[in-house]
What we know:
- This protein has 13 helices and 14 strands.
- It has helices at residues 3-42, 44-47, 50-58, 67-71, 76-83, 101-113, 133-141, 200-208, 272-282, 300-308, 323-335, 362-373, 391-402, and strands at 91-96, 118-124, 146-153, 187-197, 215-222, 232-233, 239-242, 255-256, 262-265, 288-292, 315-319, 345-349, 379-383, 406-409.
- It has a domain at 90-228.
- The relative contact order is 0.05.
- The protein is elongated, with a radius of gyration of 31 Å.
- Helix 8 (200-208) links the parallel strand 4 and strand 5.
- By secondary structure, the chain is an alpha/beta fold.
- The longest helix is centred in the N-terminal third of the chain and has 40 residues, at 3-42.
- Residues 3-37 form a coiled coil.
- This is F-box domain-containing protein.
Amino acid sequence: MSVEELHARIAAIDNEIDSQKKLLAKLENDKSSIQRQLNAVLDPMARLPLEISSEIFLQSIAWPQHAPTSLLQICNAWADIALATPALWTTVHIHFPCSDHFAKVLPIWFERARSRPLSISMSLSGLASNWNHRVSDVVWSHGGHLKHLEILDSDDPTDDGFAFDDESQKMDLFGNATSVSLPLLQTLTIRCQHRREFRASQICQLLCAAPNVVEFISDKVWTGNDPAPENLVVPTLRRVIFGETSSDDEIFAYLTLPALEALSLPMRYISGSELLACVERSAAPLQDLALGWKFGMIESVQLHSCLRLIPTLTRFKIWRPSVQVVTELFVALVDSPSLLPNLRDLTIHLYHADRDPPNLSESSWRTLIRALSTRRVERLYIVPILVSPPMDVLASLRDLVANGAEMHIGTEELNFVVI
């Protein structure tokens, strides 16, 4: 064959190869398409109505935080279901330290939620500088959809050799965010495994930015010397819970809470007079109150004055009071029938020194029975009590149990009333 004929033959073969490649590609695409159809027919998830398959996928919220994205990698049918389920993308867990790349991923995640209310948890490990403001700024920029916000830590910041008053441990939540708006926020939780310093002014800023907030929980949080506003009115806040033993509750002194229904205070820095002032200016329909006595910041007289301002109270708990404080409370309840007239649940965790276990006198027990006789208490819990109350007191308490009340007096394991 001549040179020209050989070139022509090669060109023809090239054309045939291109044609066969196109045919092969088409056959592979057809096979993939048919395989997807077969998978859809065989896949029980794909055969379910979208409402049911979506509900099944929503259970994956209990999986690790990458579960929604892992669903996208299984097959096209599952990816379609996941992307068609906005509720699957409304819960976000952010762990600091993290890379700036996460700031690019978050908007995609939020877009898949399709303007649904968001629940965001931000957890910090190590130094306060590990908080990535590029990432948190994205969260604040989507604050209009934020319904539940939780800020946590997962380790002890002092493990790195820093003290609480070190500048390196003072949390800055906002960074470059000039303003924060949280119109849908209902719950704000700041909970640490170890005491970490947050700025009281920034916590107040979060509360100010949330006109519909109903619950604020602060546990093992230290606010240092950062001042809060003179007085902050939060008209929607109904539940405020500070950790029982190691939370800085000083911020409470700056709050006016006219809608407050439940309050738990360790009384670490709040004095009795400050508590009384807050209760008086709030004039709230408080129903559930828990107070700590570990730090000795309140006296019996202040307690009784405070309780007189809360006739709506149905549940009262005190932890670590002395026997004298409890005895004085029983006497006040007898002397003033109008004190806590709606009390239904009384819980007392007495201060317990190993060498001097608490023990109420017989007269104190009988005073308690007189106080109960003028109120419809449905639950009484007093621990630790190592010596049984008098038999006539136990008889009266057992009569209340027979009428449907729940009574526990003794230790966590032992109940003298129902022995």
